[in-house]
Design brief:
Blueprint (H helix, E strand, L loop, with lengths): L11 H25 L12 H10 L6 E2 L7 E8 L5 E7 L5 E7 L3 H8 L5 E2 L3 E2 L7 E6 L5 E7 L2 E7 L3 H9 L1 E2 L1
Antiparallel strand pairs: 1-10, 2-3, 3-4, 4-9, 5-7, 6-7, 7-8, 8-9
């Protein structure tokens, strides 16, 4: 038997041509898919923050949470830890899709502000707003437009913060309960 080469000549040019055809087929598929595919809009899953707050209170942790959310707002995340340091965090989206958070932890105000607002956040004029936690809140702002209000609550710090307008944060403070 004689050894014969394959049916066609293999060459670098042929391989490059095959890769180009493959890339064109992939590009056509991606283009076709983008034309017929509708944009997928994902809505955040709401969480039952009131039940979580009640459970934390039953466990002996004096959680500060809103009695109710303003119309159109959605609670989207909860974090609760009973181990050192104890912490309660509630994340929400306003009706405009802006973020608002409530964080309660046995940490200093400066640590919570650095972590949740900005390391370069600036302390502003005190806010006098009656709430179950206290009446005088410290105001914090950063260059990016985030705002926050902090208050000492027993041995803990409560921080209400976010990218939402300051009036939305103040409304949430007025709804807090323990």
């Amino acid at each position: 038997m004689s050894e014969k080469p394959g049916r066609y000549q293999r060459s670098a040019t042929g391989m490059i041509g095959a890769m180009l055809v493959t890339l064109l087929a992939i590009g056509a598929f991606v283009l076709l898919r983008s034309l017929v595919r509708a944009d997928v809009e994902v809505e955040p899953e709401p969480v039952d923050y009131a039940a979580a707050a009640d459970a934390a209170r039953e466990a002996g942790f004096g959680v500060v949470a809103p009695a109710s959310l303003p119309s159109g707002w959605t609670a989207t995340s909860i974090e609760f830890s009973q181990i050192d340091p104890q912490l309660w965090r509630l994340g929400m989206l306003t009706d405009d899709g802006k973020f608002v958070g409530v964080r309660q932890e046995d940490e200093s105000v400066s640590e919570l502000v650095d972590l949740n607002i900005d390391e370069d956040a600036v302390e502003g004029e005190p806010l006098r707003l009656p709430s179950v936690v206290g009446d005088t809140w410290t105001t914090w702002t950063d260059e990016g437009g985030d705002t926050g209000y902090s208050i000492e609550y027993g041995d803990e710090t409560v921080l209400v913060y976010g990218s939402a307008p300051a009036e939305d944060l103040r409304e949430l403070i007025s709804r807090l309960e323990k």
